[in-house]
Design goal:
Largest interface: A-B, 16 and 18 residues
CATH architecture of chain A: 2-Layer Sandwich
Shape of chain A: globular
Helix content of chain B: 25-40%
Shape of chain B: elongated
Helix content of chain A: 25-40%
Number of strands of chain B: 0
Strand content of chain B: under 5%
Radius of gyration of chain B: 18 Å
Number of strands of chain A: 4
Order of helices and strands of chain B: HHHHH
Oligomer: heterodimer
CATH class of chain A: Alpha Beta
Order of helices and strands of chain A: EHEEHE
Number of domains of chain A: 1
Strand order of the largest sheet of chain A: 2-3-1-4
Chain lengths: 96, 88
């Protein structure tokens, strides 16, 4: 078990409650094999540059503890998820 | 005999004596790590064009300059910071 940090960007055309439920779903998935220690919803934020003709997105940051297999499945699932524009999983505390 | 082309070491000027030696900002703040989410902090170490400033400019220690570069690149991937900026 290690501490990780997950940042996700969701599509801007979704509504905030929808994004919150999507983030909640991810928390549920992590909770099945680990623990979510902190969840931070940044809200809609402008991008520093255009991504797929989009200029903004919903940012959310999760801190969690889990095994490495969880990170692998999560990384794959988020990469395929239509509502997630980008995501990044790092070791918490900048230990990458 | 060929002219002596060896460069002489520059004598320290008065300006050098006045300039304080730079101390690594992250060491000074006792930062445990450089966070890629703290965009305002990272921006201080970037040029107007969005380029990462050199160590001789930032005055950071090797450890923190490396950590800073990685943090900026992570922030760029998440569109928190630009790869190139139109300004300047």
């Amino acid at each position: 078990m290690r501490s990780y940090e997950l940042m996700m960007i969701h599509r801007p055309e979704l509504t905030e409650p929808d994004v919150r439920t999507l983030v909640g779903e991810v928390e549920g998935v992590i909770g099945a094999a680990g623990t979510v220690s902190d969840s931070d919803f940044w809200g809609k934020r402008r991008f520093a540059y255009e991504i797929d003709h989009l200029n903004e997105g919903f940012y959310s940051v999760l801190q969690f503890e889990s095994g490495a297999e969880m990170v692998e499945t999560l990384d794959r699932a988020l990469g395929l998820h239509d509502a997630v524009i980008r995501h990044k999983i790092t070791l918490a505390g900048g230990k990458n | 005999m060929p002219p002596n082309t060896r460069k002489k070491r520059r004598r320290p000027s008065a300006a050098d004596a006045r300039r304080r030696p730079k101390v690594c900002q992250f060491c000074k703040d006792k930062a445990e790590f450089v966070d890629y989410k703290e965009v305002a902090v990272l921006r201080k170490f970037m040029s107007d064009r969005g380029k990462i400033r050199a160590r001789r400019v930032t005055g950071l220690c090797p450890k923190h300059q490396r950590a800073l570069a990685i943090a900026i690149k992570n922030a760029r991937e998440m569109a928190l910071l630009p790869y190139i900026s139109q300004r300047g």
